[in-house]
């Protein structure tokens, strides 16, 4: 992430560009103040590509993901180049060869950047410490939980005081489905979305004429910069309500 404390002077200097930054972020792929390069991956020589990747890497944040070559998310070979550089940079941070192959394998487990890359400061250094271990459950799946720990398919028991079940969560629809929202016929939203989520523009839902929602299901949401997303949606909702009032709809 390359996080660091900013001086007061740096913050004040940055504010001079806010108006242009706010304008530009509404024109970019993900709502950030930067966008993909105009070049494709193989427009550059290997040496030029390496230099470009390194510059983005050194910047930190989302730049290596969203300010890179414009074909990275859309071309398999281009994506492989991005993954290879990521793996090379990450593997240097892990001294334990077994952990290195699990945490940053040479063969990409999926197209890089199609699952949100984890932003971190020192995650891999922490995982590399001898008191921390990592188990590849693709190789040795969990067989059972016991009173004292977890047994994997190779028969090994690992004992734990606490087990945290990080099995995912319903981040977008869960809250809405649990609020008791009912449509004009009294049907609960949880019932209407039981067979699948649907919306109009990711902001409204048929049968709920006075319900608008921001940063929710089927909106850009997790695929975008949150503040940019909700401001764009908020403007649309305000316009829609103004239209309803003006035309007495």
UniProtKB/TrEMBL annotation:
Which SUPFAM superfamilies does the record associate with it? Answer: FAD/NAD(P)-binding domain
InterPro entries according to UniProt: FAD-binding_Monooxygenases (IPR050775), FAD/NAD-bd_sf (IPR036188)
What are the UniProt keywords, alphabetically? FAD, Flavoprotein, Monooxygenase, NADP, Oxidoreductase
- Name the domain of life this protein comes from: Eukaryota
| Reported cofactor(s) | FAD
Q: Which family does it belong to?
A: Belongs to the FAD-binding monooxygenase family.
Question: Which PANTHER family would you find in this protein's record?
Answer: L-ORNITHINE N(5)-MONOOXYGENASE-RELATED (PTHR43098)
Protein's UniProt name: FAD/NAD(P)-binding domain-containing protein
Q: Which organism is it from?
A: Cryomyces antarcticus
